[in-house]
Write a structure and sequence with these properties.
The structure is a homodimer of 326-residue chains.
Chain A lengths: L6 E5 L18 E5 L2 H7 L5 E4 L6 H5 L8 E4 L10 H5 L4 E2 L6 H17 L1 H9 L15 E5 L3 H12 L3 E6 L12 E3 L3 H4 L5 E4 L13 H6 L5 E4 L8 H9 L5 E4 L19 E3 L10 H18 L18
Parallel strand pairs in A: 1-2, 1-3, 3-4, 4-5, 6-7, 6-9, 7-8, 9-10, 10-11, 11-12
């Protein structure tokens, strides 16, 4: 009798199909699909590997006591905040993530917004909509100063692209470190308010952890230069949205590009939609054509390592809430 | 009796003041100011140096027979098409231009538009105006192919910035040349239609000359890939605007970013304003804060060379219509 295939459960968002590319596991795993807490409870018994594609899920807590055979949880997202429930954190279960897949697309997105701010692309489009020809002097990109909060894989890729076009880029991590090939300097997060005034662009590329939740509040926005712009491609709750709205409304900062929000989807009556110099997008900065398939391939590669007994890639430090730099 | 100061006439657009920074010539030149053909006629007698800041002027032809002492014409623009009247072209007068000042800002502008197209920033803004949350998969920038038509100083700076972020960039010049540190390959303009299908972005950075006027017509747009975007930061008349409008309307190309137009200002009832995936700006791609002062400084540097008898910088080849690469 052949050995039974290991059971892999994939937890997607409600209403979503299994992601493309997962069919490559046929013959290597018994694939189950759940879309919420109840269906996850139903498929967890016997499941050895859980792959979570819904980065906003709250199904884990609800279904957890049905997990009788679980050996590993993989998240097809960079952020693992929704996975790291207190129970998962306290367990011995390894958690891995999608480190790497989103880095470059997100860095392109951030650089694009920096240039769009400097060149006032939004102003161009608004004038265009009114059929209005109006020459303005715009800003040079070269030499502007960028602070990337979060010196992980995504933050480093942002730094590399920005430096390649002549921006000056520093990073901010848990502790101060000397500059390296990516960052001119790496400041400690404890110095956030002292450091903020020196930058034209402040980019949040940090994971959502107890150390970053609410980091950008009224005091942080007050510390930024009035001509500076704020870009968040990390996680919404790193920002106190009401404080950001007030800072933008009162012109205490000069603009924002936001891809992530405390509440997603952003409610249609939210004040952010109509603020001046504010660019919104629907949590998609890293999602280039083919991204779901890339995530499946990355998971399957890790799954084969797990079957062979090789070390898993992208192992999350569950205390810190992210994959530490190697 | 001290030697009389050389007379310098500055021709600006109608209604414009002398550009900032020109006052540095006090004590070195007798400065005169003209704003149209009639006032230019009045100031030309005795004028040894003419500095033209209006790149759209047609005053030269009208005033020309009043030029009795002219030794040199400088244009504070990259394009010198308005200066190179048949008479100027046939004369021995040296013509210099603003080569260098606009290169980097224009390259930043072009790269910004490439990223904005890939990431659909316009779609984001239109959704935002409707308070609509809609996730889309967007395009990767890395690895996309760019053809820069015009392998001069501006084209090369565009290539450098684009290559720095992972785009593949070829150039197009009068004749084919091997690739170099800026371009993967340089194609001959005679091969335009054969080469166009291979590129995701086609950027016009060429001067307006008899060889480039109307280069982008219906046949050129038909040769482009349907998913390709067209970017013009060169000169409007390099493009047959009606053909471009038709190509955009019928989806034969995927979009355009236009900073220059056959008629400027673009008339408010022009069909371009409302076309899908078309980004318009008011001939300002290179005009970063302080640009007028930079242009004055560049002219004054050349003026001091001229007084000392040193070779002028940025000497235009009047046959070709631009400053040849050194």
């Amino acid at each position: 009798m052949p050995e039974a295939l290991p059971v892999v459960a994939v937890l997607t968002a409600p209403g979503e199909d299994l992601p493309p590319g997962m069919d490559a596991l046929e013959g290597e795993a018994e694939l189950r699909h759940a879309t919420d807490g109840a269906s996850l409870r139903a498929v967890l018994p016997g499941t050895r590997v859980l792959c979570v594609t819904d980065f906003r899920t709250d199904a884990l807590g609800e279904a957890w006591d049905a997990a009788d055979s679980l050996e590993w949880i993989h998240a097809t997202s960079a952020g693992v905040d929704a996975i790291l429930t207190p129970t998962v954190r306290a367990s011995n279960l390894p958690v891995t993530n999608a480190r790497g897949v989103f880095d470059r697309p997100i860095a392109e997105f951030v650089l694009g917004h920096i240039i769009a701010f400097c060149k006032d692309f939004r102003g161009n489009l608004e004038l265009q909509q009114r059929h209005e020809w109006r020459h303005r002097d715009t800003e040079r990109v070269e030499g502007r100063r960028v602070l990337v909060v979060g010196a992980g894989a995504i933050g480093r890729q942002i730094a590399r692209l920005c430096r390649a076009v002549g921006l000056e880029v520093d990073g901010m991590g848990r502790s101060a470190r000397p500059g390296d090939e990516d960052f001119g300097a790496i400041h400690a997060q404890s110095e956030l308010h002292q450091r903020l005034p020196g930058y034209d662009f402040v980019v949040v590329a940090a994971p959502l952890t107890p150390a970053t939740e609410g980091l950008f509040d009224a005091a942080a926005f007050a510390a930024m230069a009035p001509e500076a712009r704020f870009i968040n491609i990390g996680r919404g709750p790193i920002v106190r949205t009401d404080d950001l709205v007030a800072a933008l409304r009162e012109g205490r900062i000069a603009g924002a590009a936001l891809d992530v929000f405390e509440e997603e989807p952003l409610p249609s009556d939210h004040p952010l939609w109509d603020l001046p110099n504010t660019h919104l997008s629907a949590h998609m900065a890293g999602d280039v054509i083919g991204w779901r398939r890339s995530l499946s391939e990355q998971f399957i590669d890790n799954f084969r390592r797990w079957r062979r007994g090789d070390p898993l890639r992208n192992l999350v430090d569950k205390e810190q809430g992210f994959v530490p730099s190697s």
